């Protein structure tokens, strides 16, 4: 009843498009968080075929799982703690991000061969070797016989605001870190800083490789722009009942919405247990038969109520109800209506949601 449908042809289109945009830089496809809710096991091979030069995830566990479906293309991971068992990731040939001296020492202590990226602090103040420790960290890794430093990596804080002055500051800091690293004796052939918005709007920051995530799933990363990406996910459910409500009557918990005239309501099977937040009350418009209808009243654990007005289109039980995607609000529109970002919206479908994939005219789980 409740399902997401992921268009694999849209994924392939977006990968090919981004690869062309950023050339000659390499394209790292980011598939963390189960490919932003799209399903890593099915999506990553499509990206691989469409031209991915490398893959990126957050955790070592994600990287090891990805290696089972992507046997040859490089995979990098960068979110781990120094006490974590690195054996599975090293056995799988995962490239490791180094965010601190403590992490560097922990990896060196394993005595294992590994390829690494040094994460440098450039102004986001979240993760990365601080500037005063750059030279020490670079020298430590240079002298580690078991480690190969592939390059540096960092992350923009405001790339989705292309004119923000902090972007210039961070890029300048990254270039300074590169100069420092090469001065210490590291070659750093593969360096990456640009995420989706920076990859699209800031050519100077593409360096040798870009880390693209949200754009690969067809979501516009810069407000007000349209880069021709194809959204890949639709989240839909079914109408389970249609019933009348009279003027002055109210619906759902707390009776927070009252009908201002006689009308009809549809009950749709989706709720906060499935990832639709209670706080979305009144912001969502549900797609029914190509029209958008407002969700009204409290979002419940299992269901929502939709105002059909006079129900002139004859919506009935069993009809498809689009929460976002094709035939409904876009993920970006829903994000704007609810005060969040489209990244979060596509990670929302959970609970009883089943995932299906479309290739051409064929749908399959």
UniProtKB/TrEMBL annotation:
Metabolic or biological pathway, per its Swiss-Prot or TrEMBL entry: Amino-acid biosynthesis; D-alanine biosynthesis; D-alanine from L-alanine: step 1/1
Catalytic-site annotation from UniProt: 32 (proton acceptor), 253 (proton acceptor)
Residues that bind substrate: 126, 301
Cofactor names: pyridoxal 5'-phosphate
Domain Alanine racemase C-terminal: 232-358
Enzyme class: isomerase
N6-(pyridoxal phosphate)lysine: modified positions: 32
InterPro entries: Ala_racemase, Ala_racemase/Decarboxylase_C, Ala_racemase_C, Ala_racemase_N, Ala_racemase_pyridoxalP-BS, PLP-binding_barrel
Gene Ontology BP terms: D-alanine biosynthetic process; peptidoglycan biosynthetic process
Enzyme Commission numbers on file: 5.1.1.1
SUPFAM superfamilies, alphabetized: Alanine racemase C-terminal domain-like, PLP-binding barrel
Keywords: Isomerase, Pyridoxal phosphate
Function in brief: Catalyzes the interconversion of L-alanine and D-alanine. May also act on other amino acids.
Name of this protein: Alanine racemase
